[in-house]
Amino acid sequence: MLLTTWSAPSRILSFGLRMNAASIVLTSLLTGGVSNGMSQIQLQSSATITPDSKTLVFAWAGDIWTSSLQGGKASRLTYHPAPDDTPKVSRDGKFVFFNSDRTGSEQVFRIPIQGGTPDQITFHSEGSSLEDLHPTKPVILVRGYRDHSGRRPYRLIEKNLNPKEDEEIIFDANARYGRYSPDGKKLLIVRDGAPTYRKGYEGAQASRLWLYDFTKETFTEPVKDKTGCRYPIWAPDGKSLYYVTSRSGAYNIWQHHFDKEGDRQITQYTDDSVFAPAISADGKTIVYRHLLDLHTISTQGKASPEKIDLYHRTTLEHPESETLTFRSTRDATVTPTGLEWAFEAGGEIWAMDTLLKEPNQLTNSPALESDIYFAKNGKYLYYKKDNGVIVNYWRMSKTNSKEFWWNAESFDHQPITKGPKQKYSFSLSPDEEQIAYVEYPGTLYLAKSDGSEARKLIEGWASPSYVWSPDGNHIAYAVQDYNYNSDIYIIATDGKSEPINVSRHPDSDYSPVWSPDGKILAFAGRRHSTQTDLFFVHLRRKTHFRSDRDTKIESARRAMSKDPQYKEEKKEETTEAKTEKPKKEDEDSQDPIDFEDLYKRIQRIPLNGMSLSRLHWMPDSKNLTFQSDGSIHRVEAKAGAKPAVMAKASGPIIRYSDNDKIYLVADGVPSFFTKGRLSSYSFTIPINRDRVQYQRMGFKIAWRVLRDRFYDGRLNN
Question: What are the structural domains, with CATH classification, of the chain?
C-alpha cells in the first residue's frame, strides 16, 4: 500500500503503511457492530485456503485469523502487538507460515493451525518476506535484500526449514509474487510494475509475468498485457495459470492455458479491482478481496462471486481518545527579541517564554497546523492549516494585543490563501509587505501580506525552492527541468521579465541563499562526480571576488609605483575641473545584478565529501554556515575556503541575530546558541487526543495523496 509523502505529515501517514493497520482504522470508521455482540471484519490484507478446502486463513487487524470458507465467526490464531500477515498453509494442512516483525525485522514464523506458540524460521538480519511454500521439499520461498545494490535490490531466495542449511538465491534478478508449480520444477514470478492504484496504466512500467525453469535455468513470458500482469497462481494440475490484469478496465482474474489460444476472464468487475487471489488445493475455488470484503468464485464454468461475511467476538481496543506526551518539535519560530517561541506539537501550535517555559495552546482543531512564522513586529503569527482535504495558510493575531503570546487566551484567525489546491513553502518578503507560497504542483505565488492580490510569478510541474533578495525586488529559486536537472534562476518580483538561469550547468544545483547585503548568491551543487560542494557568485561585476593571483598582481603594481621612472606626474587641476568633479554613481538607482556572463563568475568551495544541509548566510555577508554530521560548520565565502566546526548542534535554524547568535531547533527543542554555548528551552505537553478524528485526518490525507499525486485524468490519452 502507499504512502509517500512529501509534505503530508509522516506522523499521520505512517498509520497507513500497512493494510492490516488500515483495516482497524477503516473498519471502525465504516462499519458498526452487528447483533449478538459480534463485530464485522473487513479489509483483510491477504487470504488463503487450507488443503481440505474447508478453512479460510487470513490476516486482519495485525494478526492471523481462521474461519470457515463460507464465512461466519472468525477466530484469532496469533496474538502479538507486532503486525502479522501473509499467511500460507503447509501442504499437509498442519501449520500456518506467516510474516511478522515481532523481532525487529520482518521474518517468517510458523504456528500450528490449531494454535500454539509460533516458531521463528528465518533469522537473516536484513529480513525475509514469505512468498510461497515448496510443494515437495521442506523449503520456503522468501524475498529479501541481501548483498545487491541498485533501485530494486531484492531477490527471491530458497530457505530450507533445516536451520543448518544455508539459504540460496535462485537467480540474480529482482522479482516478486514467486509461485512454485505443482511439481516444484518451475516458478512464476512478476517483475516491474506500476502501483495498483494507478488504474488503467499502460506503459514501460507495466508489470510482466515470467516463467522460470529450474532445470533449464531459462525464462519465458507465458502471458503479457500492456496494462500489466500480476498475482500469478497455478492451477493444481499445472496445465494453466491464473493471473490478474486490467485489460477489461479494472483488475480482474484471468485464466491462461499453456496449450490453448486465448485467455478466459474469471471475474467481471468494472468498478474496482481484485487483490491477492489464492486457489484451493482442488483447484475449484479462488478466494480474493474486492473493495472491503473477501469473495470466492468457482473456477468451473461461468460463476458469480460470493461474498464472505466474517465476524468476530474478540475484544479489540478502540478507545475514543488517547493520551500522549510531546517533548519535541520539528517546526518553530521566535520573536525578534528571542523572548517568545511558537512551535508545533501534536498538530497544534503552542507558545512559551524562555523562563517559565509553560506552553500555551494557540490552536485547537482536528486540522494539523504547521509551517509557522512570526512577523517581525510580533503582531501576527502565520501558519499552515491542513484539514486533510485542502491546505491553506492563515494569519493569527491576539485579540488583546497587550497580552503575551504565552498567556493570551483569545485569538483572531484569518485565512490568507484560498482554493482547493495544496499550499506550502510559505515566506514573508523582507519588508513583510508581501507573502510568497507554492501551490501544488509548482506554481509560486506572490500576494500582499493579507493574501489579497495574489498573482503567479512562476509556474511549472516541479516545486521550486526559493529565497527573497534582501531588497525584495528579486527571487532566486531552484527548480527541476523535464530531465530532473535542477538549476538556479533569478526573477524580478514585479513579474515583468523572464527568469534568468544563473547556474547553467548539466548537473543539479539547489538550495539558493542570498547574502544579507544582497551582493552574493550562494547555492549547493553536485558538479564533480557525486560530490556536493558550495558555490557562490558576486552579482555585480565590480564586487566579483578576485583570485589570489589578481591580488598579487595588484600588490606588485603598487610596489612598482615607488620606482621613480614609473611614477605618474601630477597634473594641476584647473579651477573648472575642480568645480566639475564627476558625480558619484548612485548605486541604489542601478540594477544591483549584472546578469551578463553571470554563470562564468561562479566560484567553488569544495567540501571534500562532506554532506550538506540547511545552508545559511551569517549576518556579516562574509561567511556561510551549513550542517553536516550533526554539527554546524562555518566557511568563508571565498574560493577554496575550508569549513570549520562552529557548533556541535544540528536542526532547523530559525534565524541569526548576530554572527555568534543562532536561534534553532536542536534535538527537537527550541534552542539558542551563542559564544560556544547552547541553551535549550525544553517543554512537556500532555495531550488528550480524539483518536477517531485523528484517524479520519489520516484517511483524508491518504486519499488526497491519491487525488493530487497519483491520479491523472489524461493517462494513456
Answer: 175-279 (2.120.10.60)
